[in-house]
Amino acid sequence: MPATVTPEFEELAAELGRRIVEAGLRGLVLRFGDETRIVGVADRMPPAATLEAPLHELHSVLSGHRSAEELRALRWIGNPEPYIALLAST
After folding, report:
1. Strand order in 49-52's β-sheet?
2. Most Cβ neighbours (<10 Å): which of 32, 42, 45, 62?
3. Residue 57 and residue 11: Cα distance in Å, rounded?
4. What is the pLDDT of residues 16-60, one digit of tens each?
5. Burial of 39 from C-beta contacts in 10 A (0-12 / 13-18 / 19+)
6. 42 HSE (CA, 13 A, CB side)
7. Given 3-state DSSP classes, what are the helix, strand and coil percentages for the chain, each rounded to the nearest 5?
């Protein structure tokens, strides 16, 4: 049974999108299973990177429960570095 996207996940993804735009970064694709969310897209610029993980892991990432080292260990397409500071727990 596939994981269900919760309203909390959608809210966390939208908040990350706002932070990406505020930081002047290009968008980020979140891919989980057969689904994707594109966050932080502004001015018709295509996303610069993709983060692919199971939905429960992406929820932990968006909740700030991963260190920079843990984030770098995930499956990224493109350069993750611009997004690490926005996602890493302190």
Report:
1. 35-39, 28-32, 49-52, 75-77
2. 62
3. 16
4. 999 999 999 999 999 999 999 999 986 678 899 999 999 999 999
5. buried
6. 12
7. 40, 20, 40
H/E stretch holding 58: helix 55-62
Which residues partner with 59 through β-bridges?
none
**How is residue 3 written in tokens?**
């994981």
Tell me: pLDDT of 90 over 60.
no
- pTM for the predicted model, two decimal places: 0.91
Print burial letters for 75-90: b (CB count within 10 Å at least 16), e (below 16). ebeeebebbbebbbee
- Phi and psi of 51, rounded to 5°? -115, 120
Confidence category of residue 3, pLDDT binned at 50, 70, 90? confident
- As a whole-number percent, the residues of the chain with pLDDT over 90 amount to 83
